[in-house]
Amino acid sequence: SFELTQDPAVSVALGQTVKITCQGDSLRSNYGSWYQQKPGQAPVLVIYGKNNRPSRIPDRFSGSSSGNTASLTITGARAEDEARYYCTSRDSNSPHLVFGGGTKVTVL
Amino acid sequence: QLQLQESGSGLVRPSQTLSLTCAVSGGSIDSGAYSWNWIRQPPGKGLEWIGCIYQTGSAYYNPSLKSRVTISIDRSKNHFSLGLSSMTAADTAVYYCARAGDFPPEHYFDYWGQGTPVIVSS
What we know:
heterodimer; A: 4-stranded antiparallel sheet; B: 7-stranded mixed sheet; 4-stranded antiparallel sheet
């Protein structure tokens, strides 16, 4: 099986920038995608592909990728960005997908 | 606007089989280059991909669940379904259905259902 590794938690001061990373071998051949999940709610897609945002996602969210690492950056964090963020990717050699363990972002 | 809605048994006895259906509205399940997925989340834990099915009927499963999972698609009813056998307490979770865009090297879940809680208890 393949895995994606995320830091469990990170904090950011209000208005500052935070970068969340996701590591895994599958990211060398497939882009990761990122999801925001707030308590009691379904996940919401925030970044996919090289650096694409669904129309309803604000532009303070951006993505990047290098080697086996995908990153999600929140520039100018707001209180409503406090949530758990998950990355996902497809396996290099099969249609299987996997989620990272999630990163809890706390806005101070 | 595409919408997905899960339905099915919310309480399952141990050793029995879970059956859930995801109804797709606002779009066709026959859309090419998309897969239709089941994902679950145990209480207080992360997301786990269960498996997916394409409009062709080809299905793929998480290796850790493969022996117990069946995903099927009914194009006439515009829905797809999940079966998970031999349920135990460890299968207690919120179960989500989701559409995934399949545009290599991009793969992403763009539409999700609201999720349905499933409890395994006698």
